[in-house]
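Running this now, will post back.
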Amino acid sequence: MKKHVYSWGNGKAEGDGTMKEVLGGKGAGLAEMSKAGVPVPPGFTISTEVVQHLFRERQNRAAGD
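Update: finished.
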């Protein structure tokens, strides 16, 4: 099954700075900072694929499809 949610915090992260295509710029940056030991609050990023799907669905519903 494909991964859609990536978490970070407490010095660990499921992604890194090379994953901008998957995590978006902010998600990749937060993952990288967490891995580097920068104190960022724990959190998660939803993949860009999921966000794009949600935007398409929203547009389709607004158009009445």
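The first helix runs from residue 20 to 35. More later if anyone needs it.
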